[in-house]
Amino acid sequence: MNANEPIPGLPEPYSNPEATMAPAPDLSELAALRAGYVRLDEIAPAIQAASVSRRRFLGFGLALVGGLAGTAVLTRLFPVFSELDEIPKVVPTYDPTAKKWTFVIDTASCIGCGLCVDACKTENHVTREPEFTRTWVERHTTTADGARFVDSPDAGIDGFPAVATAVAASGKKVASAYFEPRLCMQCETSPCTQVCPVGATYQTPDGVILVDPRRCIGCGYCVEACPYGARYLAPAADSAPSDTPGIADKCTWCYQRISQGRRPACVEVCPVGARKFGDANDPNSEVAAIVRNGRAKPLHPEYGTKPRVLYMGPSVQEA
Q: Could you tell me if residue 6 is inside a domain?
C-alpha cells in the first residue's frame, strides 16, 4: 500500500502527509485509518438520525407564542417541530463546489428568546452546560454615560432577565441595547485549520469548517487560535457531539442538514427570521440579495479571516 495514495472522499489535508505536523504512520496504522474513514455524505444520514427533541421545543414554544396552542400550530410556525418517519437521504445531486453558503444575522430583529441555542444543542448533541455551546446570544447594552456592557446568562438559552447580569451595569440608566447571536464564522482564511497539528480541523469543498473526531487529539490549539471564541473542547457529559468527549467542537452550520437541502436548526426555529442562511451563488436567494445590497458586514474584518457570517443592524455600527 502506498502511504501517499489519496484517501477517497476526504479533503486534501488527509491525503497530503506534508500538510500536517504529525509524523507519518507506518503502513499498518495507515491501513487501519483508511478502513475507518467514510465520506461526509455517508456520515450525514447517521447524524440526522438523532432528530430534534419535540418535547423540549413544545415547552418553550408554548410559552413564547402565548395565546396560540396545540402542536399543529407550532409545527406550522416552526417546521423543526415536525417529526420525520424516515431519515431523508443525502441529496444525490448535491454539488458542494457550486455552493457559497452564507449566514446572515439581523441584530435589529433578534428578540433574545434563546430558541436558537436550544435548537442547536438538541440537534447536535451538545451538552446542556452553558459554558459549552456551538451558538450563543449576547445582550449588548449601552448606558447613559456611554459605557458598554455585554452579558449572556447561560448562553442566552432561557432568554434574558429585564436587568443586565453584567455587575458593572447595575443601577445605571440604559440608553440602548440589542441582542447579538454568535456562532462559528466559517472563515475563508481560518486560523483553526492552520494551527491544527493533525489535520483534524479541515474545510469542505463548500467552505464549511468541520472537525474529524477520529483525528482530533484535543490539544486545544484551534480553541486558542479562533479570534471569535467559537470553539471549545467537548467535556465528558451525558451528551456530546459524535459521542466523543475531549475533542474540539464548534458550530458546523448543521452540515448534516444543509447537505440535504435543509436549513440549520437555529435558522429554522427562529420565530422572527433574525437568522438567515442560503447560497450566495443563487441570485434568487434572500441571502444573495442581502449580500448584493451591501447591508450585511462581517464582525471585526480587521482580523483578516474573511468570515462568512455577516451581520446587519446595530452590531455593525458598534463593531
A: no
Confidence (pTM): 0.70
Q: Is residue 302 part of a domain?
A: yes
The long-range contacts involving 302-307, CB below 8 angstroms and separated by at least 24 positions, are 303/227, 303/228, 304/189, 305/185, 305/187, 305/188, 305/189, 305/190, 305/191, 305/227, 306/187, 306/188, 306/189, 307/185, 307/186, 307/187, 307/188, 307/228
Domain extent, residue 70, equals 32-133+178-318
pLDDT tens digits, one per residue of 158-187: 999 988 888 888 888 889 999 999 999 999
| Cα 36 from chain centroid (whole Å) | 26
* Predicted confidence (pLDDT) at residue 76 exceeds the cutoff of 60: no
Confidence class for position 143, pLDDT limits 50, 70, 90: very high
Total number of domains constituting the chain: 1
Q: How far apart are the first and last CA of the chain?
A: 53
Q: Is residue 48 part of a domain?
A: yes
For residue 139, being part of any structural domain is answered with no
